[in-house]
């Protein structure tokens, strides 16, 4: 059954930040409820976490090629060689609480990802930089609105960030969705609000943690997410429910 953990809903609009201003930005969210011992608030610094800490990471929105150096080497958006700040990119910062399943929401009513290249990369760290592969979000034809991001720690150090896909299992047979590349459930962009349609195409990113913290305590939230259908968390967030779920009642 569903874990009895507190669920944190962090809602941030996409911020226009340059890489340098990251260091001045204080992200909020994961320090609530006490127990935080992690005083690193920049997504471009290294830290080691324990359970109950807040952990800051970023998501960069840009075109796919802009995340690569010389079109071949995938770098962290913190790496100045990418010069993402000079490009048409946007950044969001999040600070979820370690080992709590969280749903991040990015409201697309004023921020259309396809205007910024249509791809996103999750990242954190400097010397121990981790970054996800670029995930397709949107172009003028399709938008993917639901993602699961797994953050893997070893001894409290972030090792890996990856997108967990379900091979479209969660939208199979639903005519509102198109399965892209046999991995992502997508909505047609023209059916989104502000794009000629009526669907709220805000992005939802489910977070899960795996591995161990600095005291070698095992992070469990990944196992819980694994047992959930990709979309099932949405029903638990009442303020998202009205906008995200009601539009596809028979789906959720
Ligand atoms: C990128 O390309 C430039 C110019 O072609 C070259 O000087 C540089 O060594 C390359 N860098 C990497 C990391 O491949
Ligand atoms: C996004 O913002 C719009 C306008 O403020 C609001 O009407 C809508 O409910 C928001 N969507 C979500 C999912 O929070
Ligand atoms: C949008 O992306 C989808 C999936 O990658 C692709 O099939 C389609 O051709 C793209 N459309 C445009 C207008 O680029």
UniProtKB/TrEMBL annotation:
One Gene Ontology term, aspect cellular component: cytosol
InterPro entries noted in UniProt: DPH3/4-like
Keywords: Signal
Gene Ontology MF: a single term: metal ion binding
Signal peptide start and end residues: 1-21
GO biological process: protein histidyl modification to diphthamide
The protein's name in its UniProt record: Predicted protein
Protein species of origin: Arabidopsis lyrata subsp. lyrata (Lyre-leaved rock-cress)
Organism taxonomic ancestry: Eukaryota, Viridiplantae, Streptophyta, Embryophyta, Tracheophyta
């Amino acid at each position: 059954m569903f874990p009895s953990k507190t669920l944190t809903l962090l809602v941030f609009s996409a911020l226009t930040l340059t890489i340098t201003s990251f260091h001045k930005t204080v992200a909020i969210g994961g320090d609530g409820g006490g127990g935080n011992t992690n005083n690193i608030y920049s997504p471009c610094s290294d830290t080691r976490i324990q359970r109950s800490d807040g952990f800051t990471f970023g998501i960069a929105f840009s075109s796919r090629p802009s995340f690569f150096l010389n079109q071949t080497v995938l770098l962290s958006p913190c790496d100045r060689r990418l010069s993402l700040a000079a490009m048409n990119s946007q950044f969001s910062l999040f600070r979820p609480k370690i080992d709590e399943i969280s749903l991040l929401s990015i409201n697309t009513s004023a921020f259309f990802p396809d205007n910024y290249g249509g791809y996103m990369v999750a990242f954190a760290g400097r010397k121990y930089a981790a970054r996800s592969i670029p995930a397709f979000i949107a172009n003028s034809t399709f938008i993917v609105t639901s993602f699961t991001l797994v953050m893997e720690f070893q001894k409290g150090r972030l090792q890996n960030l990856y997108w967990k896909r379900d091979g479209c299992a969660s939208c199979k047979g639903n005519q509102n969705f198109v399965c892209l590349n046999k991995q992502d459930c997508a909505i047609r962009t023209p059916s989104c609000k502000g794009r000629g349609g009526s669907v709220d195409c805000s992005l939802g990113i489910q977070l899960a943690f795996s591995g161990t913290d600095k005291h070698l305590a095992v992070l469990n939230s990944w196992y819980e997410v694994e047992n959930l259908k990709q979309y099932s968390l949405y029903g638990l967030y009442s303020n998202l429910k009205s906008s995200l779920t009601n539009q596809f009642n028979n789906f959720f």
